[in-house]
Amino acid sequence: MARYRGAACRLCRREGVRLYLKGERCFSAKCAIEKRPYPPGDHAQTRLRRRISDYGIQLREKQKLRRIYGVLERQFRRYFAEASRSPGITGGILLQLLERRLDNVVWRLGFATSRAQARELIGHGHFTVNDRPVNIPSFQVRPGDAVAVRESSRTLPTVVAAVSAAGGRRLPPWLRIEADAMRGLVVSLPARDEIDTQVQEELVVEYYSR
Fold it and tell me: Where are the beta strands (DSSP E) in 68-174?
């Protein structure tokens, strides 16, 4: 499975916003955006003074959304193609498909400190969907699905630390959690106003519609 292996903080600096790629570090004073609030590279300050074209704005919004969910370009294009074929608003459907990824759901439920950590835990077989082991991070959950930590993995230090750190995190309305059982339920499909991802998805649609 291909994935980005570079510095996560470099991506946040390039987009100029927190992408929450490193878990609790992103909420602390150690966050790279706090320490170096400018793009990476030798000529970052010069680039900041340039006027960005409409294409550039659309590109940056697409890159931001792709990096938030940890999806590479080819897979992201497939999500967009599926959203385009589906009835409804393309941008909203695209966000819905990204939110329904199993790695995102595991992170939303607080069983991992970041989506990247969720992908790793899922790949190692620590989660089930409807009591069946699933090791595919891109698995699409549906309303009524139950996502749980496998019984043998509930004492895993990584999972225990994530659950402890997520104690005050707000759960989106389309998910419900049974904390004692380390189990979450997908109540409904996520509506746009239930997705807190700070992105202008219409710009992404414009980028691919050129």
Answer: 127-129, 132-133, 146-149
pTM (predicted TM-score): 0.80
* Bridge partners, residue 175, by sequence: 186
Does 8 have pLDDT greater than 70?
Answer: no
Lowest mean pLDDT among 20-24, 138-142, 147-151, 194-198: 20-24
Q: pLDDT, tens digit, for every residue of 114-158? A: 999 999 999 999 999 999 999 999 999 999 999 999 999 999 999
Residues in the chain: 210
Alpha carbon of 167 to those of 82, 105, 108, 123: distances in Å?
35, 16, 12, 24
Instruction: Answer whether CATH 1.25.40.10 is correct for domain 101-188.
Output: no
First to last CA, the chain: 30
CATH of 8-98+198-208, one of 3.40.50.720, 1.10.1050.10, 1.20.1290.10, 1.20.1330.10: 1.10.1050.10
Query: Which tokens belong to 87?
Result: 């009835």
Residues contacting 161, CB < 8 A, separation 6+ = 113
